[in-house]
Amino acid sequence: MAGPNGRRSLAARLKDKRIIVAPGVYDAVSARIADRMGFEALYMTGYGTVASHLGLADAGLATYSEMVGRVAIIAENTTTPLIADADTGYGGLLNVRRTVQGYEAAGAAGIQIEDQEMPKKCGHTPGRRVVAIEEMVQKIQVAADARRHDDTVIIARTDARTTLGIDEALRRGEAYAKAGADVLFIESPETTEELAMIGRSFDVPVLCNVVNTGRTPELPSKQLEELGFGIAIYPGMALKAASQAVTAAYSYLHDTGATLGINVPLMDSKDLHELMGFPDVWEFEKRWHTGTGAAE
Q1: Which of 108, 100, 102, 99 shows the shortest CA–CA distance to 41?
Q2: How far apart are CA 44 and CA 81, in angstroms?
Q3: In which domain, by residue range, is 274 found?
Q4: Angle, helices 28-35/237-256, rounded to nearest 10 degrees
Q5: How many distinct structural domains can be found in the chain?
Q6: In Gene Ontology terms, what is one molecular function of this protein (predicted)?
Q7: Which residue, among 87, 83, 92, has the nearest Cα to 60 in the 3D structure?
Q8: At 212, phi and psi to the nearest 5?
Q9: Does residue 145 sit in the same domain as residue 53?
């Protein structure tokens, strides 16, 4: 688990002008794979976590208890700093305090809270409504005050752009920064010009949600860096890739009754065993002669 070193490294890294590229992870397997790649942060996607854990849409259906449990599992299986989606904080101000402290204890280095009304909806989907700016300001103030570690990164997300326009989204971003947010996340800008406005408007780092076929133009991370962004997250990439690959593999098995000749890349069994930690199990059993209770 990244723990305090992960928090410190993420907070320190955000002072650098180079962009952080953070892939979306949604379970222990995707997290273990991403953790080996050398990324500087991982992003626990709410959409992917709710989908993989509950088989439901990311529409405010997952509870705090369900989600903090996922944070703990992912953090336990990784050493890379983890940014975790905490939706709206799962309720009022007391809930926000509990969420921040619970996510911290579970291993999150960064905690993202958004200003949507309940039930919240996934970004880049229609029908999102936001709470009054004053309500979200208080949530950010509580979040910043509640953290037990000064280097836990609080990320404030606004979904105001889609329904209220870019000017209101920028106004909210400024208010959330003043309330204590360490990073601002202006969700769903719709043009490159709006991305540029966001990148130059704030004194704190800004985050871009990169979604292929989403509402926001998909730009290379280097271009986002040039526009002023400090973090680029790719929340849906792995889930989409895995879902497409599994669909193709199951279709092949259904149609042919075999895996021979399948044109979907399959991880070698040896590599999968190694990824999931079987060598440690085998070494343990060799040392302790499992079943005898005696060590060598």
Answers
A1: 108
A2: 11
A3: 266-296
A4: 120
A5: 2
A6: lyase activity
A7: 87
A8: -70, 140
A9: yes
Query: What letter represents residue 89's amino acid?
Result: G
pLDDT of residue 5: 53
Same domain, 172 and 291: no
> If we measure between CA atoms, which residue out of 175, 160, 153 comes closest to residue 86?
153
Q: Give 125: exposed, middle or buried? Use CB within 10 Å, 0-12, 13-18, 19+.
A: middle
The pLDDT value given to residue 125: 64
Rounded to the nearest 5°, which phi and psi values hold at 136? -70, -35
Write down how long the chain is: 296
Q: What are residue 291's DSSP bridge partners? A: none
Distance separating alpha carbons of residues 204 and 160, to the nearest angstrom: 19
Q: Within a domain: residue 192?
A: yes
Q: Are residues 100 and 194 in the same domain?
A: yes
Is the distance from CB of 112 to CB of 185 less than 8 angstroms? yes
Give the Cα separation of 289 and 274 in Å (integer).
21
- Distance, in Å, from the CA atom of 72 to the CA atom of 170, rounded to the nearest integer, reads 33
pLDDT tens, position by position, 47-72: 999 999 999 998 889 999 999 999 99
3-class DSSP state of 56:
coil
Entry pTM: 0.93
Q: What is the DSSP string of 265-284?
A: ----HHHHHHHTTHHHHHHH
270 and 234 part of one domain: no
Is 253 within the bounds of a domain? no
Is 295 inside a domain boundary?
yes
**184 and 283 both lie in a single domain:** no
- Mean pLDDT of all residues in the chain? 93
